[in-house]
Amino acid sequence: MRKSVLMMLFIALMANGLFAGGAPETKVELVDDNTTLNLVLMTKDSTTSAFPDWIKKVEAACNLKITVVPTPTNAGDRQAKVTTVLSTGDKSVDIITINDEMYTAFKETSWLEKLNDIMTPELIEQYPKAYLKDMVITSDGSLYSVPMYFSVLGWFVNTDIMKELGYTSLSTWEEFESFVKAATNADRFGYGDAWDPNYVFNSLGSFVNLYGGDYYDWANPKTQAGLHALVKLLKNGSTTTSQVADQYEQLYQNMVAGKRAVALLYTTQIAKLKKAGLFAPQGPIAMIVPPIADKTIGPTAYCSSWHYVLNAASPNKTAAKRFLKYAASEQGQFDYTQSFGTFPAYLSLLNDSRLDNLTGISEMREYVNSVILHGRPIVPESMEYISEIGNLFHRLVLGQIDEAEFCKQAQTSTNKFSK
């Protein structure tokens, strides 16, 4: 049975000197002639306001003419679209942006072009190596990804509500549980979540990790304790079954509207919260270190990335590798961070003084320094496993099965998909 991936990034980074003054700038030779090449990029970023300026910067840096194809915004539709493009050998798309779930499903197929010549051993030193080892690099040492950015699943709280109720800290589970119950009233719930069947595994696994459990072992008492802690928030009225269809966009809107006091959101939402004038110190929403449920475990959180991958059927591989060399470089990662307000996967940039004014950078640095970061429980048949557990969780919170039956069926599903 597979084990949960424990990624103690700060220790690994210190051992490799990545936070000891940073690494020298990577010099990237992108263009070996003056020919402008064509490239088709299928991306999730195209609807953001910063995208037009960013794509112009990329075209200039790489001497490319880029045609952009948006991916569907809905996770299920996006998975289906990208799977169709890759599995059918569609030559109309070169570079595609995909998430951890899709990458895990695709990396052992023949659909992606190997990128070991881009992500060289020297360059890998600048990236979260434990994350690459456990989530990106295949068993034979192959690598098919250039990580776009690095994110964590953060605990976000409305500090105005904390002040209203007289709370100064949510560092312990007792404080957190008390606060979300007190914050619940006719107009809001204390705890908000994304319980869409393709999303709830993030939160379920987060609670399992808080108690030191193992997402792949549902007979483990600590795993069951994490499940119980999440379900208890529903039973005591601190959260709601109405979020069984919610993804992160709906959860974000509920936080913005003051309908939730605490929510689990990825750090990619910080830029949106800043734009809305809501992220601290300008606004009331702040990201806090996760509450400690077990002192022997400490604060824990999931980390993740999105990926640039190269379609194996692409007819424009020279152009694609120009793009990927830039995207993987220190400059490319810095430009992406500056454009979209995300955090770089090129980790030595986290302590770069040029990012000191980036909203959320101090919180991200604190997470990397003090929070135990875990890779997420993703298997090759990722979406099937994720949705099966998600639908099983729906049956639990809707009262169709109890926690014991959930654990029994979750273990059956885990055994089926993790072999």
Structure at a glance:
By secondary structure, this protein is α/β, with parallel strands linked by helices.
Question: How would you describe what is shown here?
Answer:
- This protein has 419 residues and is an alpha/beta fold.
- Strands 1, 2, 3, 4, 5, 6, 7, 8, 9 and 10 form a 10-stranded mixed β-sheet that branches.
- It is globular.
- The chain has 17 helices and 10 strands.
- It folds into 2 domains: 23-151 and 305-358, D-Maltodextrin-Binding Protein, domain 2, CATH 3.40.190.10; 152-301 and 375-417, Periplasmic binding protein-like II (D-Maltodextrin-Binding Protein, domain 2).
- It has helices spanning 9-15, 51-62, 75-87, 100-106, 121-124, 129-136, 159-165, 173-182, 200-210, 221-235, 248-256, 270-275, 317-328, 330-340, 361-370, 382-397, 403-417; strands spanning 6-7, 37-43, 64-70, 95-99, 146-158, 189-192, 260-266, 285-288, 300-310, 372-374.
- 41% of the residues lie in helices and 15% in strands.
- α9 crosses α10.
Which features would summarize this protein structure in a list?
single chain, 419 residues, alpha/beta, D-Maltodextrin-Binding Protein, domain 2, 2 domains, ten-stranded mixed beta sheet, 17 helices, 41% helix, globular, disordered N terminus
